[in-house]
Write a structure and sequence with these properties.
This protein has a domain of 154 residues. It is built from 6 helices and 8 strands.
Amino acid sequence: MRASLIALALAALVAVPAAANDEPPSWKAVVTGQNNVKQIGLAFHNFESANGFLPQDVKDKDGKPLLSWRVQLLPYIEEETLYRSFKLDEPWDSADNKKLIEKMPKMFAPVHTKAKAGHTFYQGFTGGGALFGGKGKLSIVGITDGTSNTALVVEAGEAVIWTKPADLVYDPKKPLPKLGGDLDGNFNLGFADGSVRWVKKGFDEKTMRLVITANDGEVVDVNKLFKRE
């Protein structure tokens, strides 16, 4: 029932910067990006409803990441056939899986800047208490800071190959990862409750750090994220 309701509610080896676009992002591009992030969030919820935990990178028996969580979402964005084409026991750049990079769903594609084929800006945060990169399987109810206060997916500063298990590495002691590479430094931020907010460059960094972490117990006023000095 929950999955049905949610459903109805709706080639380089490293990260590469997108080509510059002299024109500012159009409102259509912003809205398209917002919708993409929204649909990705809904797919996360549908996956969690069906499996009891949030999607994570596909790993081998030793825990080594093979494929991105973006591949895990495919059956939940009407891409079941593409999903079945992957060799889930092989890395993203194996002979078989590498052929599928060019088949990236439009939902993951840049909306404004030009990136190499098969590259996406849609990433999660990993490490430092963020949703991705932790040990074990995390469910929605396991996000103790609250789903409306926790970042799920964001438009990153640099594009990565969509099948590669690559996300924004977060370290509380280091500068924030670059964000907003597709929309001139501004970005759509998807929260774990499925909501999406438009964040402008110059956002409050302290609040952003609190939003990135999922279970630190810190009180966060998300609205401060959108206040500029």
